[in-house]
Design goal:
Rossmann fold; seven-stranded parallel beta sheet; 7 strands
């Protein structure tokens, strides 16, 4: 990619980048010439991605405002600027809502929604000075019923609303957009969802219009676009990257009638 997609020399902070989608995004951006800042709760978790990218590692719990402020200051000291943010930290905990206690629900909101806001808020002064861009990471669970993952879906719905509100308040200095991944193949999803079975992953892939599950690189390309000048007229948007569903509500009902 070149021209409006060029990220050479830009400084981008990718949170939750020790593994999975975040690491895939960080490694892609580094290959595109960006100066990448990688993040985890503990610095030792970042050793592999730092070795692969030469990135600056920072450590902070995204629910800790003071720690995030220190990380942002470390970025300012090292680079003097911040052009982009990918707020990727999140996580899902299974639990039926009738049995889920309020504290567990609150922890899901804190990690996925409050943590996303806290990172964006810590990065804002540097992003504003650079007239930069932020990409928040949601999930397709935000717009559909998610039995056993209701707290996660509610939190991600909040992330998408937050995207639109931040874009309205922080523009024109900072563009804010959101990427909404579908099912992505990572070490975590292979274990938790596909039970380390390539056969099950392939079967799941057939529920997408493109015929496969996603890869971290698919999300990296979406983030690359939204961080670049090619998306200069895009703000407050949610870009769904899920391979395209092969059925909707009517098809599900018809299939149920046939079973």
């Amino acid at each position: 990619m070149g021209g409006g997609f060029d990220l050479t020399g830009r400084v981008v902070w990718v949170t939750g980048s020790s593994r999975g989608i975040g690491r895939g995004v960080a490694e892609h951006l580094a290959r595109q010439g960006a100066s990448v800042v990688v993040h985890a709760r503990k610095l030792e978790a970042l050793e592999e991605v730092v070795a692969a990218t030469g990135a600056l590692p920072v450590a902070a719990d995204v629910r800790d405002e003071e720690a995030l402020g220190a990380a942002a200051e470390e970025i300012r000291t090292r680079f003097g600027r911040l052009d982009g943010l990918v707020a990727n930290v999140g996580g899902a905990a299974m639990g039926a809502l009738a049995e889920l206690d309020v504290e567990r629900f609150r922890r899901q909101l804190d990690l996925n929604l409050t943590g996303t806001f806290a990172v964006a808020r810590a990065a804002y002064p540097l992003l504003r000075a650079a007239r930069g861009a932020a990409v928040l990471v949601s999930a397709t669970a935000a717009t559909s019923a998610t039995p056993l993952f209701g707290a996660y879906g509610a939190a991600k719905a909040g992330v998408e609303h937050l995207t639109r509100s931040l874009a309205a308040e922080w523009g024109p200095e900072v563009r804010v957009n959101c990427v909404s991944p579908g099912l992505i193949r990572t070490a975590g999803s292979m274990k938790a969802v596909f039970r380390d079975s390539e056969e099950l992953a392939a079967k799941a892939g057939r529920t997408a219009g493109v015929g496969r599950v996603g890869e971290p690189q698919d999300i990296a390309y979406a983030c690359h676009y939204l961080l670049s000048d090619a998306a200069g007229y895009v703000s407050g948007a949610v870009l769904v990257v899920d391979g395209g569903p092969t059925e909707g509500p009517a098809q599900r009902i018809l299939r149920a009638l046939e079973d």
